[in-house]
Amino acid sequence: MRNRLLLIVCFCFLTIPSIAQLKIAKLKYNGGGDWYANKTALPNLIQFCNQNIGTDIDRQEEIVEVGSSDIFLYPFLYLTGHGNVVFTDQEAENLRRYLIAGGFLHIDDNYGLDQFIRLEMKKVFPELDFVELPHDHKIFHTKYDFKKGLPKIHEHDGKPAQGFGLLYEGKLVCFYTYESDLGNGWEDQRIYNDPEEVRQQALRMGANIITYAFTEE
User: Fold this and answer.
1) Which residues face 62 on adjacent strands?
2) Which of 72, 96, 114, 180 could be cross-linked to 161 through a Cys-Cys bond (beta carbons 3.0 to 4.6 Å apart)?
3) Could you tell me whether strands 171-178 and 162-168 are parallel, antiparallel, or unpaired per DSSP bridges?
4) Whose CA is closest to 209, among 155, 173, 179, 160?
5) Spatial CB neighbours of 165, under 8 Å, sequence gap ≥ 6
6) What is the percent of the chain where pLDDT is above 70?
7) Closest Cα partner for 103 from 80, 125, 147, 73?
């Protein structure tokens, strides 16, 4: 499990009878971007993980605001959207403390997020830059093997799918999936009519991210 934050979360789940399962959450941000995109994505990914890799995550999609202390209740946060993202200084500091404490953030560009999220994450970690993760990085091989790195789910601009990371003191605290649209692949099949093999690729990569977030120190 990941450091202090997850130890605290695990203690809460063991000691509070009303909480039966681990929960993960979608991150709500300001700026006008559609943080609420891909409504069926997280529930479907959670179901896939529970059925295929032995997790026991609550299927209900939780929503938490960037500036809320409640982010510390969730060891895994998911951020997506197409448009503008704005973090206040307080929100950036809150997210920084969460990630340094052991939390994990997956940012999934739903096409159009890139120019905004890079600026906002600079508020969170001014000293860090996103670096492209090599294809042999463990996140691409935890449960399912992606020899070519991040899979391409939806085509937009003819660019390759890329997986970027923010590494704080050598630890991957934020994984940014760009030009892939993993979340669209997690959605109900009727929404984008993706072939089942494409959906399975997206779900397997998502399971790798979940596994990595919960097991790497």
Assistant:
1) 25
2) 180
3) antiparallel
4) 173
5) 130, 131, 133, 137, 172, 174, 175, 176
6) 90
7) 73
- What the block records as the tokens of 25 is 């959450």
Q: What pLDDT is stored for residue 69 in this prediction?
A: 97
Are the C-beta atoms of residues 35 and 117 closer than 8 Å to each other? no
Cα angle value 48/199/85 (rounded, 5°): 90
For tokens 């992606």, the residue is 146
Pair 178, 164: CB distance under 8 Å: yes
* Domains of the chain by residue range: 3-215
Would you state the pLDDT for residue 19? 40
The pair of three-digit structure tokens given for residue 63, joined into one six-digit string:
């929503």
What does pLDDT average to over the chain?
Answer: 91
In the structure, how many helices (H) and strands (E) does the chain have? Answer: 7, 7
Instruction: Report the CATH architecture of 3-215.
Output: 3-Layer(aba) Sandwich (3.40)
> Can you spell out the DSSP letters for 22-62?
B--EEEE-BSS--TT--TTHHHHHHHHHHHHT---B--S-E
- Give the residues across from 168 on adjacent strands: 171
